[in-house]
């Protein structure tokens, strides 16, 4: 029987622990998401700094400049006068003698917090010293934040700004702004200014403030199509294409959208409640009214024509020499044809 692959906990878990006041003697951060790793690094430094009274007890070391044995010797040495010693090892992926961490991780000194910043991924956590670090709870991965992980980060970020954001509203915000965390952080600056003494970020606040700075995304395209705004839909689909979006997922999302519209009448006839309808078609209940409006804007004949145009486009992508720009323009024109 094959062994299951070992997966390190997310750096988000380390952030949660640090915020609760739990400090580990070792942190080994690795992964592709430098954004969240840097956020955890800054938080750890902020928490540890008050425990350090002299700069001699705070060191930043590049792995290419010293051997791990030298670094660990510094970690074993008592602080000069502080309660803690804080050592940051950058580019830890370049360490040649990582195996030394196996013995260090078994009994690290309590007066030292040492942080290793490893660029990129780790091929096999089952190998040492990573397995030991994992076993003792010192290994954390900076995973690319998508889906649930991104929502969790967004909720934590809102809380750090003393703002109240529900999970449902967080999903709406991501749907409007996209998954770029710099853009998401920018929205919170606007929320804070707009809300003043208030703290709750409502749907109304999100839709009022987040729309103006967002980049075009697939949700903008679906919204324009649902309103039968042909000029805007063509502008958005070209913007998506010119910014490097692959036509295949665009066509796939259009197929899902129109399949959902076709299902609305059936669910209405069965008197299915709105929350269940939203879940079935894979949207937030806040957006269900947009689907209902779009369904009213398309006759049955226009819906079936749209589905046929999408299927034709899907075949063209996979089997013909039609250029993507022409295919996308033709597809939107057919979907929003008057007859």
Q: Could you give a quick summary of the protein structure above?
A:
The protein has 339 residues and is α/β, with parallel strands linked by helices. Helices cover 56% and strands 9% of the residues. It has helices at residues 11-19, 34-48, 68-76, 100-106, 130-135, 147-160, 167-177, 181-195, 203-210, 218-226, 230-242, 247-269, 274-281, 288-297, 300-319, 324-335, and strands at 26-31, 58-62, 85-90, 112-119, 139-142.
Distance between the termini: 59 Å
Under the CATH scheme, which architecture of the largest domain would be assigned?
A: 3-Layer(aba) Sandwich
Q: In the CATH hierarchy, what is the class of the largest domain?
A: Alpha Beta
User: Which class of secondary structure composition applies to the elements?
Assistant: alpha/beta
By oligomeric state, this entry counts as: single chain
Indicate the overall shape. elongated
List the helices and strands and how they pair.
Elements: H1 11-19, E1 26-31, H2 34-48, E2 58-62, H3 68-76, E3 85-90, H4 100-106, E4 112-119, H5 130-135, E5 139-142, H6 147-160, H7 167-177, H8 181-195, H9 203-210, H10 218-226, H11 230-242, H12 247-269, H13 274-281, H14 288-297, H15 300-319, H16 324-335
Parallel strand pairs: 1-4, 1-5, 2-3, 3-4
Helix pairs in contact: 1-2, 6-7, 7-9, 8-9, 10-11, 11-16, 12-14, 12-15, 15-16
């Amino acid at each position: 029987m094959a062994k299951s692959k070992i997966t390190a906990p997310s750096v988000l878990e380390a952030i949660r622990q640090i915020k609760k006041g739990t400090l580990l003697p070792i942190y080994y951060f690795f992964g592709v998401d430098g954004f969240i790793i840097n956020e955890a690094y800054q938080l750890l430094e902020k928490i540890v700094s008050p425990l350090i009274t002299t700069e001699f007890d705070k060191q930043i070391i590049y792995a290419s400049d010293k051997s791990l044995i030298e670094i660990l010797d510094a970690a074993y040495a008592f602080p000069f006068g502080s309660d803690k010693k804080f050592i940051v090892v950058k580019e830890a992926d370049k360490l040649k003698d990582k195996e030394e961490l196996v013995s260090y991780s078994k009994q690290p000194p309590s007066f030292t917090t040492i942080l290793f910043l490893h660029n990129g991924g780790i091929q096999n956590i089952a190998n040492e010293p990573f397995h030991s670090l994992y076993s003792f709870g010192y290994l954390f991965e900076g995973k690319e934040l998508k889906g649930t992980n991104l929502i969790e980060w967004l909720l934590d970020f809102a809380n750090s700004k003393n703002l109240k954001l529900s999970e449902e509203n967080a999903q709406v915000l991501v749907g409007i702004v996209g998954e770029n965390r710099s853009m998401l952080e920018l929205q919170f600056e606007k929320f804070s200014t707009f809300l003043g003494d208030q703290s709750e970020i409502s749907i109304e606040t999100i839709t009022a403030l987040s729309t103006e700075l967002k980049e075009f995304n697939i949700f903008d395209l679906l919204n324009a199509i649902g309103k039968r705004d042909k000029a805007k839909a063509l502008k958005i689909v070209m913007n998506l294409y010119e910014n490097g979006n692959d036509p295949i997922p665009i066509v796939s999302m259009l197929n899902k959208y129109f399949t959902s519209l076709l299902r609305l009448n059936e669910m209405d006839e069965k008197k299915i409640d709105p929350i269940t309808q939203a879940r079935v078609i894979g949207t937030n209940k806040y957006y269900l009214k947009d689907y209902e409006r779009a369904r009213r804007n398309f006759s049955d004949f226009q819906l079936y024509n749209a589905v046929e145009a999408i299927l034709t486009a899907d075949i063209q992508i996979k089997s013909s020499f039609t250029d993507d720009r022409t295919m996308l323009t033709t597809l939107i024109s057919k979907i929003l044809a008057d007859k």
